[in-house]
Amino acid sequence: MKMLNYSHSCKGESRKHLVYKAHWAQVVEKVKSTYPWVTGKMLEVDKEYQVPEGTIMIEVCDGYAVAIRLTELGKEVIADGSYDLDMEYIVSEIAKVKGLEQ
Question: Block means of pLDDT (10 residues each) for the chain, length 102 residues?
Answer without folding.
Answer: 90 80 90 84 92 95 93 94 90 86 45
